[in-house]
Amino acid sequence: MWKWIQAFASPRNFYQTSEKIIPWLMVPFIGLSLIGLYWSFVVSPADYQQGDSVRIMYVHVPAAWMSLFIYVVIAIAGGIGLIWQIKLAHIVAKVSAPIGAAFTLLALVTGSVWGKPMWGTWWAWDARLTSELILLFLYLAYISLHNAFDNPKTADKASAILAIVGSVNIPIIYYSVEWWNSLHQGSSIGVTKISMQIDMFIALMLVSFAFKFLYGALVLMRARDEVLVREQNSRWVREIIVGVGK
């Protein structure tokens, strides 16, 4: 297994293999998105208290989940890059950051839109909201720090350390509604409980998995470009450039 990972992590092998994987991620994303939208707006019922405004949950919650998931990926990839010196791990971390920042911003915006009719305000310095905003700042800090260095190796190491240190915010976000008094409602989905109607749960899962497939496809597409930039002086990259130019 480790040998296969090392072989796939080779920039050349990754570039060639990832091209074949991307369509297998985009097709499920499109299919799940269409089904998820139908389930969210047609099949899923309105909430007995919130009415149709609850439907923003089907974007807000999966986006919030993705914001946490992607940051964990960045921290783990950064750690792998630091310990085992795997170039592709640093590349995955770097290209994931803008995607994670976009999902975090989407979670904050949809949360504000959802919060206005529920709380009577667009924003409150609630523990969950504030820690999610800090997550966005961590993403932006990671991106800025990486761009601050001309040497990719130095940038990879510095930003990986920042990502690992910043990962302490992840459990704070997750448990904030339990640790502090919060306007934000508690989790409706847990390991042993699902506190919502089954049609709502299905819609939520469909969109959530669609976002994960989208993330996978975007990471591979961005990583392929980053590999070409970093390996531009390699023979195999020059052969690709020559082949494209013919």
Could you say how many structural domains there are in total? Answer: 1
Overall geometry? globular
How many beta-strand runs?
0
Helicity level, as a percent range?
Answer: over 70%
Q: What series of H and E elements makes up the topology?
A: HHHHHHHHH
Low-confidence stretches: none
Q: Helix/strand-derived class?
A: mainly alpha
Distance between the termini: 38 Å
Overall pLDDT, averaged? Answer: 90
What profile does the largest beta sheet have? none
Task: Report the total helices.
Answer: 9
- Tell me the Rg in angstroms: 20 Å
Strand content: under 5%
Keywords: Cell inner membrane, Cell membrane, Cytochrome c-type biogenesis, Membrane, Transmembrane, Transmembrane helix, Transport
Protein name: Heme exporter protein C
GO biological process, one term: cytochrome complex assembly
InterPro entries: Cyt_c_assembly, Cyt_c_biogenesis_CcmC, Cyt_c_biogenesis_CcsA/CcmC
Could you please describe the fold and organization of this structure?
Residues 27-184 form the Cytochrome c assembly protein domain. Required for the export of heme to the periplasm for the biogenesis of c-type cytochromes. This protein has 246 residues and is mainly alpha-helical. The chain has one domain (25-44, 55-182, 194-245). Helices cover 78% and strands 0% of the residues. It is built from nine helices and no strands. The protein has helices spanning 2-9, 11-43, 57-84, 87-119, 127-147, 152-166, 169-179, 198-230, 235-245. The longest helix is centred in the first third of the chain and has 33 residues, at 11-43. It starts with a helix and ends with a helix.
